[in-house]
Amino acid sequence: MSFSGQIADAAARNAPLRIRGGGTKDFYGQALAGEILDTRAHAGIVSYEPTELVVTARCGTPLAELESVLADRRQCLAFEPPHFGAAATFGGCVAAGLAGPRRASAGSVRDFVLGIKMVDGRGRELTFGGQVMKNVAGYDISRVLAGSLGTLGLITEASVKVLPRPSAETTRVLDATLDRALELFSEWAAQPLPISATAWHAGRAHVRLSGSEAALGSALKRIGGEPADGAVFWCALREHEHDFFEGDEPLWRLSLPATSAPLKLAGREFIEWGGALRWLKGDAPAGTVREAARRAGGHATLFRARDKSAGAFAPLAPVNLRLHRELKKVFDPAGILNPGRMYPEL
């Protein structure tokens, strides 16, 4: 049975569906519920125009396979998406909306989404956007779907903009306290430096430079530091294979203004994106973490934890919750698609 048929049948039976590709991000979000709707068979690259910097692929396409094809033409997904496992799919990448170390310099997943084909909660096949950047007038549904965790519909196909791989890259590491690292990240951000990633952990600040050999040489004179194995470090950070991420303690993902001062919360920290992304590992109470993030002008997500009774995502303000409910009602009136994955009310 087609995806449209399966979803329409589930809606008629009021049977919840759990949209699932490789399952590598099952930990992300709230409860997993419903009959599994497996997307992996719907795979393959539909079109790829290297000269136009656009690729279109089906949802079940292995993410590693897509990235390999792009690498053969010295191109890449600029937002550097995490896989969290070999079975990661392209559809899951877009639906989760997670980006890696290059996010601060390149942009988020939704920034690169050009168009999407989907099946909504009624079983209707819908198309939004296209294969060029300026193809939307009004509300851009394609980008709304990026990061929606399948709660609005099944993304069957997506077109995304790709970028050339940097001709050269190097990583440097410096000894620095957290306060000093944040100062350095802010200073560097104000200069025309080819920085593609920054991170801090346990007294060591890492910076990755990407671009031409000449640009890197000039930047290195300003930044200094010691050479480091960037390929290993940034991959381990992106995939959460760094030692910091080991263990069963709750892992919080704090999104803050980059210039925010250290929050001084109990636990261990790993800083990315020039200070805008802060991982916190420890048993600090959920209310304490979320209030600290709110005061700093950001929000906190309980990224990994055995107990998510406090909610994976920061509570929505009443007006935002109403908007989410209305959007859910438009696309999934029966409420069968990944129910409760983001919020219990959805």
Question: Would you mind describing this structure in some detail?
Answer:
- The protein has 346 residues and is an alpha+beta fold.
- The protein folds into 3 domains: 3-164 and 321-331, Uridine Diphospho-n-acetylenolpyruvylglucosamine Reductase, domain 3, CATH 3.30.465; 168-238, Alpha-Beta Plaits (2-Layer Sandwich); 249-304, Alpha-Beta Plaits.
- The protein is built from 11 helices and 17 strands.
- It has helices at 3-13, 63-72, 90-96, 103-106, 109-112, 141-145, 178-189, 213-223, 230-238, 286-295, 318-331, and strands at 17-20, 35-38, 45-49, 54-58, 75-76, 113-119, 125-129, 154-161, 163-164, 168-175, 195-201, 204-211, 226-228, 251-255, 268-272, 277-281, 299-304.
- The strands form 4 sheets. An 8-stranded antiparallel beta sheet has the order 13-10-12-11-15-16-14-17, with helices on both faces. It has a 5-stranded antiparallel beta sheet with strand order 3-4-8-6-7.
- A hairpin with a 4-residue loop joins strand 15 and strand 16.
- The longest helix has 14 residues, at 318-331.
- The two termini are 27 Å apart.
